[in-house]
Design brief:
about 190 residues; 8-stranded antiparallel β-barrel; 3-stranded antiparallel beta sheet; 11 strands
C-alpha cells in the first residue's frame, strides 16, 4: 500500500470525496502502536448510521472487523503519504446491514474540524451546464435558491414532453423524495 512509516491517526476526519447529500465523519482515538478506536457517522440523504469499533494495525494499515452490530462488516484504514486516509469497506455486502439506502463509509478522509468540501451550487452539482444559467436561476429563486441545492441529492433528467426544447430535472433527497423534491425546467438560452 506504500503507507508512510509514521502517521498521526488521532483526530476528527471528514470524507472529502463524498458526493453532495452524502458524507462521513470519523473520530479516531486511543492510538497505540498496534491499535486505535474509531467512531463514525455516515449519511446519504435522510439515511444515517453510526459505526464504532476497534482497529488493529497490520503493516501500517488499520483493519476493523469487530464493528458493534456489524454482522461481519470490515473496514480498512489506509494512511496516505499526503496525510489523508483512504477508508474502504468490504465488497461482499456485509456492511449493508449498518449502512442502508446505499450509504457507504468508503472515501478519502481529511483531518478537519468541519466538513471541508466547498459549498455546493446547482452548477457544481451538474444541474446547470453553465454559470450563466446558474446565475439566472439564482436571481429568479432568490433566497429559496439554497432550498433547491439542499434537495439536489438525487437528479433525474426527464423528457421534454411539451417539445419546448427544455431540459427537465427532478431534484430529490434520497429517502424522502415524496416530501423533499423540486423540478427545474430550463432552455439553453435562459428561459426558466
Amino acid at each position: 500500500y506504500n503507507v508512510p512509516e509514521k502517521f498521526n491517526w488521532d483526530g476528527e476526519w471528514w470524507n472529502r470525496s463524498a458526493v453532495h447529500g452524502d458524507g462521513g465523519k470519523i473520530i479516531l482515538s486511543h492510538t497505540t502502536k498496534w491499535a486505535f478506536n474509531f467512531d463514525a457517522q455516515v449519511w446519504r440523504g435522510t439515511y444515517k448510521s453510526n459505526l464504532r469499533g476497534d482497529v488493529k494495525m497490520f503493516y501500517g494499515t488499520g483493519l476493523a472487523d469487530n464493528i458493534a452490530w456489524g454482522a461481519g462488516c470490515t473496514v480498512l484504514f489506509i494512511p496516505r503519504t499526503d496525510g489523508q486516509i483512504d477508508v474502504r469497506s468490504d465488497s461482499n455486502g456485509s456492511c449493508k446491514l449498518l449502512m442502508r439506502g446505499g450509504m457507504s463509509i468508503d472515501g478519502t478522509y481529511v483531518r478537519s474540524q468541519s466538513d471541508p468540501r466547498p459549498a455546493a451550487t446547482l452548477l457544481s452539482l451538474g444541474v446547470f451546464p453553465t454559470k450563466a444559467l446558474d446565475d439566472r436561476f439564482r436571481q429568479l429563486a432568490g433566497k429559496d435558491y439554497q432550498q433547491f441545492v439542499d434537495v439536489a441529492n438525487n437528479l433525474v433528467y426527464s423528457a421534454d414532453l411539451d417539445s419546448m426544447g427544455a431540459t427537465v430535472v427532478t431534484l430529490s433527497v434520497k429517502g424522502a423524495a415524496s416530501r423533499r423534491a423540486a423540478i427545474i425546467m430550463f432552455t439553453q438560452d435562459g428561459k426558466m
